Amino acid sequence: MSFFGALTLLCLLGMRYPVRMMPLLIFEFTWKLIWVLAAWLPPYLGHTLDPDIADSFSGIFLGVVIVPLVLPWGYLWKTYVTTPGDRWR
Q1: Which of 44, 46, 58, 80 holds its CA 20 to 30 A away from the CA of 74?
Q2: What's the CA gap between 73 and 83, in Å, rounded?
Q3: Does the pTM of the predicted model rise above 0.90?
Q4: Phi, psi angles (nearest 5°) of residue 17
């Protein structure tokens, strides 16, 4: 629960500084996508989905669907992929 509390507080901070908090949105999308692929999909395909996993799927799945729709992919590509990294010392 402390993880979700911290994530909520950081998301609220992200409303004030959206560009600075972009890595948080990437992190949120990544862990939710990993959860769907690793924890939900295998039992779903094997028809062995238990109620606990099925109940938590709706909230997680919304994050996997909504977050990519609001991410500025052009900015992310330019900033985190094509920009040269800082030199190591």
Answers
A1: 58
A2: 14
A3: no
A4: -125, 75
pLDDT in tens, 11-70: 788 778 888 888 888 888 898 899 999 989 999 999 998 888 888 887 788 778 888 888
Sequence-distant (6+) residues with CB within 8 A of 89 are: none
For 83, the token pair is: 């920009």
CA-based angle 24:37:13, to the nearest 5? 15
Q: How far apart are CA 51 and CA 60, in angstroms?
A: 15
Domain ranges of the chain: 2-81
Per the rule left: phi > 0, alpha: psi between -120 and 50, beta: everything else, 51 is alpha
- How far is the CA of 28 from the CAs of 32, 42, 44, 48, 49, in angstroms? 6, 21, 22, 26, 23
The CA distances from residue 29 to 9, 11, 33, 35, 87, in Å, are: 17, 13, 6, 10, 28
